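FAQ: What does the model actually see?

It sees only this:
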Amino acid sequence: MNGELSRDELVRYGRHVSIPEVGLEGQRRLRASSVLIVGAGGLGSPAALYLAAAGVGRLGLVDHDRVELSNLQRQVLHDTGAVGTPKLDSARARLEGLNPHVEIETFETRLDSGNALEILDEWDFVVDGSDNFPTRYLVNDACVMLGTPFAYGAILRFEGQASVFAAPGGPCYRCLFRDPPPPDLVPNCAEAGVLGVLPGIVGSIQANEAIKWLAGIGDTLAGRLLLIDALRMEFRSLAIPPDPECVVCGPEPSVTELIDYERFCGGPQEGGATEDGDRSAQTEGAMDELDIDVHELKRRIDAGEPFQLIDVREDYEWAICNLEDIGARLVPLATLPEAVDGLDPSTPLIIHCRSGPRGDRAVAYLRAVGLERAVNLAGGILAWAEEIDPDMPQY
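And it is asked to produce this:
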């Protein structure tokens, strides 16, 4: 492929070329670049469409699934006629129809420790559109080892996250989530649902990050985590510093080759986001025996009743806002099994997260291991901020 754009390409990409920050040079860079997309589903669909439309010269797709009717609510690469066929067949036809100048390469296989380094090698950028923890940690570790940056995305219900990991000098996914939570504590999209347009938003952000990186323009999300709340239409960006003790990208890594990620993550999972989805704050008196609302918690505080308050969010969320002043203790969901022995089964145990779903999972787990007085704070710390402490920061 020579360096000059054809007349057709000049017309096709004219709106890019007319942007001073992109111009002919930026468009040539895109044409000479390559992106591998892991997953041709909810996130991979918009990412692939926009990267192909943008004129990235070579696109790779990794997927081993077939199109299902339930996919079509959000996986816009595919249509009704493709139901039952391999996703990669549908994706190739759509992308080649969108832009015949883009070379499409497909890998109809499940990404694993045995093939990841070979498949991910020799791509300029990776878009992680996976929906499960084993693949997410696998992509991260492989990209760190190969020195290839990747755009991360995750979705559940109304909420999403995006970032760029494994960029030079920046953090990797394990700097943010060192260990995965136990699989029985994690809701998946089939159970919890996902707003159909949300993967379009997050996948487009991933494509945007890839385009900026390849064209050498703007500031990427490397070193930042973008939090998206589609229900409230709010965006928040948080700094993510590299972890000097990271087992993969730290100065003295202990993980120097790919591992058994299914075993590391506790077995195969169909879902994959630890992020909360939305759970609207419920009214007082409407809770079941597994929940209490924020007004009941406030009553117990005012009455001086004993209880244990456990926050199962992540460190970065605790830094934004927390209930430490009323005795909350941070135990990230992934570490909950390690903390069980330190919990008093005779004292009421109140679990909270941001808005509810992680707390539900934590309560189910705790009751299963014998802590029958565990309940979830319905609506989480978001409900506390909205109904009890309006001065508390929200995110």
